[in-house]
Structure formats: structure tokens, C-alpha cells
Specification:
The protein is 26% helix and 27% strand. It has five helices and 14 strands. Helix 1 packs across helix 5.
Length: 220
């Protein structure tokens, strides 16, 4: 057990993408692999935490007995799973890349090619971090993730406030080797009164940095 232990703590962590079905064979999704979220889950578990990992579709597997994986597919399924565990968790980490929108209706059969255009009506999914932020207790610590392509810091700070987060981990697709599908990442962690920048490194090492900072805020 490391010095910065989370023994006795429960961590609720989301990871991976969500898939929003269009018909039985197609979906709206994104390029998230879940690697950052799973690296965080392993790190928390190694530090002694009980981890409830709510995971969207991914090929990854966990390796620690302290991790309980709840497999989901859609944003709605992820939201309902998170609600089940949120109240008892000490730390919330929203690392999943949740689809903002879903098709209003799902076709019960494969949509066949008919004409040159296809229009799909979309409706907004629940913003999970924002919804949970409205019920967060004073003793709970909440961490969000933001993947941005422009106005990165301003957008991340706005999310920090609106979602009642204690900190937000900012990724930029403008940084080579960072973001989706890579084994490395480069992030800036933003708090209300502090900013921490980390160089490009393996996601497993970055997970240690993020978990260390959370520990310092919990015990500082």
C-alpha cells in the first residue's frame, strides 16, 4: 500500500464511449477507447479504494479485485448506473466520453439505402456530471474531463463551474499524442484557484499524477 492511500474510500468512475443506436446495426459514437478511465481505475484500486467502474463499450479489462465493472452501452444506461452508486461514493470521476445526443427513435430494422440523403432527428442526452453536480454533498469530491479543440481553458472553466466540479482534466486534440486512441496523454488540470500542466506521458503515469492530486485535496 502506498503512502497516499485511499483505503476506506469508494470511487465512482465512468470510462469509455457510449453508443447511441440508430438501427440494429448502426450507432452514433466517438473514438474513445476508455484507456484513461481504466488507468485511473487501476490506480485508485492499487491505492486501496473500492472502485465502481461504469464502462461504455470497450475491449479493455481490469486486473484488480477492488474494481467492480458495470458494463453499459448508451448514455441513458450510464446515467442510471451512476445514480445507483453516486450517493455512497466519496469520489466521482467522470472520464467517459458520453454522447451529447441520441437518435429520437431507433429503427427496429436495418435502414436501407433509399435516396441520396438520410435525416436523423437527434435529442439531447442527460449531462451526467452536471446532473450529479446538483446533488453533490459537501464531503464528496468530483472530477470531470473536457476534450476541447478551441478556447480550451475558457470552455473547461465554464464546465468546472456549471457542473459543480472540484477539478477538471483538460485534453486538447491540438496536442500530438494526446486524446483518443493513444497510450499517452497530455493534460492540464484546472481548479477554481489553481492550474497544473503535465507533459506528454503514458496514461498509466498520468493516472498516478491525477490520483495524487485528488489525494492531496482530500487530505490537505
Amino acid at each position: 500500500m502506498t503512502e497516499k492511500s485511499f483505503k476506506g474510500k469508494t470511487v465512482l468512475l465512468t470510462a469509455g464511449p457510449t453508443h447511441e443506436p440508430i438501427d440494429p446495426v448502426r450507432f452514433i459514437g466517438n473514438h474513445s477507447t476508455g484507456k484513461m478511465g481504466y488507468a485511473l481505475a487501476e490506480c485508485f484500486a492499487q491505492r486501496g479504494a473500492k472502485v465502481q467502474l461504469v464502462s461504455g463499450p470497450t475491449n479493455l479489462r481490469t486486473h484488480h479485485a477492488n474494481i467492480e465493472v458495470v458494463a453499459v452501452t448508451t448514455a441513458d444506461e450510464m446515467y442510471r448506473a451512476v445514480l445507483k452508486y453516486a450517493e455512497a461514493a466519496d469520489v466521482w470521476v467522470f472520464a467517459a466520453a458520453v454522447a451529447d445526443y441520441r437518435p429520437k427513435t431507433m429503427a427496429d430494422k436495418k435502414i436501407k439505402k433509399d435516396g441520396d440523403e438520410l435525416t436523423i432527428e437527434l435529442v439531447k442526452n442527460v449531462d451526467i456530471a452536471s446532473a450529479l453536480g446538483k446533488q453533490k454533498k459537501e464531503w464528496q469530491f468530483s472530477v470531470g474531463f473536457a476534450l476541447e479543440t478551441h478556447n480550451e481553458s475558457a470552455n473547461a472553466r465554464e464546465k468546472l463551474r456549471k457542473k459543480n466540479l472540484n477539478m477538471i482534466v483538460l485534453n486538447s486534440l491540438n496536442d500530438p499524442g494526446a486524446g483518443f486512441a493513444h497510450d499517452t496523454n497530455q493534460v492540464t488540470i484546472i481548479e477554481e484557484n489553481a492550474t497544473h500542466s503535465f507533459e506528454l506521458k503514458p496514461k498509466s503515469e498520468l493516472a498516478q499524477d491525477i490520483v495524487n492530486l485528488i489525494w492531496e485535496r482530500l487530505h490537505g
